[in-house]
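User: Predict structure, ligand iron/sulfur cluster.
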Amino acid sequence: MIALDAIETTCVYCGCGCSLYLHVENSKVFAITPSLKPPARGRLCAKGWLLHGFVNHPDRLREPLIRRGDRYVQTSWSEALSYIAESFSEIKRDFGPDTLAVLTSAKATNEENYLLMKLCRAAFGTNNIDNVARLCHAPTLFALGSSLGSGSMTNPIESLLHSDAIMIIGSNTTEQHPAVAFHIMEARRNGARIMVIDPRRTQISEIADLHLQLRPGTDIALLNAILNVLVQEGMIDEEFIRSRTEGFDAARDRIAEYTPEVAEGICGVPADLIRDAAVLYGRADNAATVYAMGITQHTHGTDNVQAIVNLALATGNLGRDGSGIYPLRGHQNVQGACDMGALPDYYTGYQRVSEFRGKFEDAWNVRLPTSQGKTAVEIMGSVGSDIRGMYISGENPLLSYPDGTRIRRALESLDLLVVSDIFPTETTRMADVVLPIASFAEKDGTVTSTERKIQLIRKAIDPPGSALPEWVVAAKLLEAFGISSGYSSSADVMREIAALTPSYGGITHERLERGGIHWPCPTPDHPGTPVLYRDGFPRGRAVFRHVDQFKHDNHKFTLIIGRSQYHFHTGSMTRRVCILEREVPEAFVDINPEDAAALGIRNGTGVILESERGTIRARARLSDGVRNGTLFMPFHFRESPANMLTGWQLDPHSRIPGLKIASVSIRREGA
Ligand code: SF4
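Assistant: Predicted complex:
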């Protein structure tokens, strides 16, 4: 009988953070099974079941590479790291520390994000650090943080099982956060009523009691109208508003103009359906709101989130099981990357750079930068003028950032680009130095899921070739810059994080062996905090802030950019899993049959999409799941890079670009 190892770890894809087992034989992961722990509870999605498909792939990067002319030469780690340290030091000496920047990875562990943050601030000497959260949930951090006190999910996923009503807005939950969708369906079987607000008809909208199929980008008008009905019909929690919030009276006065009829004119949702939605949400004892990038990836993303917060505050739906606000994070560790201070304005645990610099200077025994750091898109926009050297950890901005043509020009003009990854990508192919990194199955560490749950990932097999965990790489680079690290394991790194970060103060790898812990967990004997705000808000009172609907341009076609359930982000992992690639091997554009007929487009016709930023080709898919004038397309495919069509206009609060929608024209190929 063959002895098989089963190593418990955490899924590397979406932010749900499903626990699962890697089954290993002959140093290879050959199968995956789900853990019974929440949120997996014995279930995985297709990507999860096939998680091992990319780990053993022959394309894995195995050795460090340095560009020599127009080709790459394999080199040793010591030569690669010396070259990197000398080259970054030279740029810093000649042009100043703020010409350097680091973009960390939401697929990397907390320990890796922490050490790259330390490298950026303590060694490079700049606050120019950011992570992919800037492109997905920066508005959540800003709106929930400033209004409630913490820019994160208020309740654990399991809390949805106690909800009487669930509002899902801007989230294709069954496809993109399946573990959350499992819980919503279970809640529905238990009697919860479900409403979906989405311009597309999706799987989750089909099981909903109400589907409000609004025009893209008109969420604020709709949410304000729901709030208006709640106020008019007395479905608000006066006691909660009086005792735990501020700013309601001013918000109530301004909400009055958003009647359901006015909102209907803006959103295209019938006024009576808006009233029904208000009753569904307002009459529930415990109502929850689940949202994702359909809310945040807009140039008014922060206001979108605030409109959700206003509804929860008006009805007192915070601080209890079954209530709450659930921003769904797209990547395994995007929450953790932010928690670890991979942000230009915060150290770990959202300790402001402006307030806590002295604390980190004392701990690290180094002077730290005082100047304001740039956000991810600002960093890219400053290449060629202010930014000359960049370290990109495990990200592929050529496909994931707006206006890929501009990103390519920016990366081409850097003096030094270092990219770490597990596979060659469009971005590694532009790097001066490529660093091969261990995958999630080949290292130890922690990640923090969308529900603020810190969990272990465990090493199951050795990395290929001489690939290393990125925390080891960052520690070696710190030493190359003369900053003694002395870490012998990622557990050592977590000890330093815990010592400096109140919300992680009670976290150790040893404790996590017994199961995940929700932060804040300030001390070793603290059990963690699954539900926030049970006893009040950190700032005393939560804040209403009225938000207005931005002008919605009536484009001929509005392209919604999203995801397929079979692929993840820029496809570097899932497109190497043959079953996932077989299911969706190429980009598609969903178009309403009436629009298609008018343009002479049939199912499968090649079409050209064009915006002010660029032109791409894809194949049309006729679908009455999208409204007239609306198109949908996923962005995973390098052959049809949808994000190339989007622009650089930023949300003024969170600095997120409007990646969710683009104004485009569409025509038949050859027409
Ligand atoms: Fe992984 Fe998310 Fe699927 Fe769970 S729901 S298995 S975390 S991709």
